Amino acid sequence: MLTGLNVLFATYSGPLLRLPLLVQLAILVGVTLLVVAVAILIDSPTIKTFFSRTGAVSWAAVRWAAFGAPGIAGALIVFLLATNVWSAVTRDSSCAEPVDLRVTTAPEDVVPLTEAARRYVAEKSRRGCRAASITVTGNSSIGQLEKGFVNGWTSQGTALDDSDCAHLQARVTLLGPQPDIWIPSSRALAETVQAALEEPADPKERDECSREAHPVRAKAHLDIHESIGSSPMVVGVFADFNRRELGGVPGEQRLAALLSTFSDKQVLDSVTRTSADTSESALLATPVLYQALREAKWVDDGKMAPERLLDQGGTSAGDAASLLCQFRDDDAHGRTPPTEGTAVIVPESVLARYDHGDDLGEEAACQGRVPSPKWRLYPYYTADLPVIEHPFVHVRWPGEDTASRDRAVEEFRAWLADGELTNEGLRTAAGTFPDDAVRLRGLRKDGQDIPDAMPPHPLRGDPGCVESLEQVRTCYNEARPMDPLTLLLDVSGSMANPGPKGGQRLARAQEVAQSVAANVRPETTISFYPFSTAALPETERVISSDNDDARENVLGAIQREVPAGQDLPLATAVEQTAARLLRGTQTIVLLTDAQQVNDTPATRARDADQARALAERLEKYRGLRLLIVPTGPPDCRAPRIALIIDAFRDRGTAACVGSPQDALDDLASAVVSKVLWG
Amino acid sequence: MTSGERTGIARQGGGRSRRYKLIVASTVSFVLTLAVLPGLKWSLSYRPIFDDCGAHDGLVIGADVDLSPDFQRRAMIDEWNKGKPPDRRATLVEVARSTDATRSQLAAALASGSCAYDVLLVDVVWLPEYVRRGFLAEVEDSWLDRPNDFVLQTMRTGQWRGRQYAIPWFTDAGLLYVRRDRPPPAGWRDLLGQGYITQLKDYEGLTVNALEVIWNTQHDPVLSGEIDKVDVGTARVVLRGLDRLAKANPRLLSHSRAYGEDESLQAFVAGRDPMRNWPYAFRQLTADQRVRDDFVVKKLPEAGFTVLGGWDLAVSARSKHRTEAVALIKFLTGADTQQKLFSCGGFPPSRTSAFEDPKPCADPKYSRDEQPSPRQFAEFAGVLAGSLYKAQRRPVTPYYAQFSETFRGCITQLMDARAGAQGAREPSAETLAAALTAALHGRHGSC
Fold it and tell me: Does B85 touch chain A (CB under 8 A)?
């Protein structure tokens, strides 16, 4: 009996109670009617007696309830007074605290969502009081995102110990505020992450940490809802290469046909896509790009040929907004667009905001500015480039799952689902846009053909590459080389000093190194060496990995480094490292502040000699390339770096990449590009 | 007895019985309904997927990302953990670089009843909001080691309505950085006339800089301390101060409107103009080979009013490890720790003893030319201490975020109007007073 009651109570207080009230009532009424119907059909005297008694008792209860109506009314009044009116009377004239909502999305969607959130907060204010406060942050790495939801939104490299779930390291870095809302670029991505969060049926396979979870590393719970706005990926070309007549019926021809036409008419023969490691939209466009580049005969049938061509667009950017910020910056400095005819693959919404002169990000280069005529981008639509869906994902975290938070998230979702993002440059979930969507209408300037409807469709591209996100990623990874990579991190005392973008130089170097390690092909052999007078590469224990799981060790080792010892000459560090490497095609990435202690003509002459000697000695390491990444303050012109680059000039096997002022994702993407393709 | 009388008595009896039934039924119904309603309310209420508040072993500290030289904050936690068993160690959880993003995480977690965080690093402007929302445990006298050693101004940052809720860890005050070959500005007329590099981008830096200009040019620290109303007279003082800012050297003013702290620093390194910035810039400039000792640090001129910033440590009201949390805070705010955080981490200390006989970081991993000379560091410490004593709090209100946003909107309106921007209109004193008063009550206000 007790067991039965327990089961009944557990069922009712469990799944049933999570249903809406009307559904709960409907279920109860349905169950009652079912019991009555069964009883009638059985036609037993015992049941008839039972019903007759139950009827009499019910009737007596109704009569007594009628007598007790004043009491019921009184109790209701007292209850309402105690729970609502009293708190309203005692509240002061100030506003109640708004619910803090945290949103994460792709970097290129941060600004549109932030603007939409501001409008929402203003619209929903009651008597001037805000009901919610919304913070939107960008997630820059698809890999980080997946692991973040599984591990309490901690960043990769926090080096969680899976054998000791209850305790944390002395320091844990989050990817930002734990999101209540996640707006990914595709439903496939959301579903992939959701699947990763599910507990395996076999208890033996379950992650121990999910049961004995520390609050900071607990798993999230995801509810995937419908799309809140869409945006087709488009081919954007600068004004000098815009040939409207070549576009065909917008949105109906295939990408391969469009590219063929462009090259046949000698309009352009190069296309740029942002990093598919950090940009979800770029990753989704990858299968159809590979297929189109081959069919248009822009590349041969080699597996890596399309990726190599995509990388040779000459621009490295972490996401579409960042790419267009670089264009905007060039425009502001009076430079001209690339003359060789390059197209860019970006979401229509980002292109529309760029052309309209809206903000694209927080960096100075991203601030609002209408492009000059030559820098204006014109979109071309195809039937097979993906349409970014933007599903709304409600995220719940242990310890933060409350009714008010749930309600606030659902209200924001309902508002967004009403097509509000069309004000910010997106289309409706169905792919249309209203007449007052100024940014999208603005694309029709100069008579450009902009299709009224671009409904979302399944991914298209090479068969075997589009059925799931996993397939997309596998095809992308297989199209990239996996030559060994060695990360050489300067940990000398000078790296403890602040860098030009705020924060420690070592922290910047660590972030770049981690991002590079996370974004090369998973099977790549990665080795990591810190260097300073206290950490000589010739004697340090090497940390290496050659698969996705072991990579965590490398990321953790990078994260744990702290400055120690003094400057070790760069040439010495490289030489000691090279001596421990196996021969073959590979790259050493050296991250340093290039601090020059005792900078005198004599020390420079000595360093120059060392650099030349290094270049000669590395001759025997055929296929070894050296990339130097300055953390700042000085850039690639720093004497210590310039001497080495000079010494290798004739051989062409050393280069300096990036600038201390570059955004992290852009810099990491430039380094990865150099590592892969030279 | 007639049948009529009998019917009357029967009716009377029936009436009494009816009244009796009514009273009994109503009383029983009243009691039953009151007993059932909370249960009904409970049954209709939201059922969280996760019930646990986040109980854990050890301590968890919620903070922004440590950007200090040599990660001194993290080093302090390592120091604390030495020799402790795993279940008593502390973990520093760094949420984000942005203080707003950090606030949104901590506020969201604490407002939801989470007990995941034990110790909170609180920006001084958030404290009243945290206290009002019941996030912080009140500080007891026994939690403070040598309370008189704390700089009075910094100690007050942990108070709300006369009660102490947090203990100052490190503090902040505005300083003026001047190239050695340039004469320091004689006063604010000089500084604004020549122009200086500062932070006027639309973020908290704009609020801070505008307040400093208003306070110093009007010799009146208005919009400071615990206030819940701005009158028209105060608004006039504010507008006069903003008028001085809007008439500053246009070349530098227009540049500064795009600058935050880091952009200001880059502009200072690249040029010769003076710069207003926080104390962290001192360490950054001395470590930059392009600058090293080619600058001096000064207090802001004349009255020298500056905005008091900084971060306090508090115990979460929901922590299940209060005793350990208090011990950790005592360790982190102790005199020795403060000294080390100042010399090696560049954190301006909140204890007066840390300013006595200050010495640069003695860590052997730094070469001599990366560190300030002892004389340079002592001068810096002296200027910083002097600035701290003149530092004023921003409005102390649970609605600081709303105040700052509204204030910045009004400043931007005024500056845009002066710059001739289309549609921009200078706010009147009445409009400004109304907007700021609304904001101090958490209401949306605009100029």
Answer: no
